[in-house]
UniProtKB/TrEMBL annotation:
Organism: Rufibacter latericius
Classification lineage: Bacteria, Pseudomonadati, Bacteroidota, Cytophagia, Cytophagales
Residue intervals of the Helix-turn-helix domain: 47-94
GO molecular function, one term: DNA binding
Keywords linked to the UniProt accession: DNA-binding
Pfam family, one: HTH_17
Protein name (Swiss-Prot/TrEMBL): DNA-binding protein
Keyword tRNA processing: no
Length: 118
């Protein structure tokens, strides 16, 4: 026999409750996926010039100047320029200034190696 409480319950409220539960599970799975893969599903999607300029925080004209001087990694198909987040982050990291501690550690490391004559 059916429970009388369930028979009088609003079916739309029950559907809404189940959908909310599924949404929580879906969000939790997405968080786990991002934690394990270290990125988002959009990480491999190519960026347009507009999106890349917004991502880097530079004007689009500056981005075009960097591509014409081949100072920034980009792909070109036809007349369209494409950029990948991973490449842009690597480019940004390449311009990173080392801290004083990193410079000292590098200097100490190079002093410790013997270089003989060939």
């Amino acid at each position: 026999m059916l429970n009388t409480r369930k028979a009088t319950e609003n079916p739309f409220a029950a559907i809404d409750e189940r959908l909310s539960g599924l949404e929580r599970i879906s969000l939790e799975l997405c968080k786990l996926f991002h934690a394990q893969t270290g990125g988002s599903p959009d990480a491999e999607r190519p960026l347009s010039a507009q999106e890349a300029s917004e991502f880097l925080g530079i004007p689009k004209n500056t981005l075009y100047a960097l591509t014409s001087r081949r100072e920034i990694p980009f792909c070109k198909r036809g007349k369209q320029l494409f950029f990948f987040r991973k490449d842009l982050l690597g480019w940004l990291d390449g311009g990173r200034q080392r801290t004083a501690a990193e410079v000292r550690a590098g200097a100490i490391g190079s002093l410790g190696t013997k270089r003989g004559r060939a």
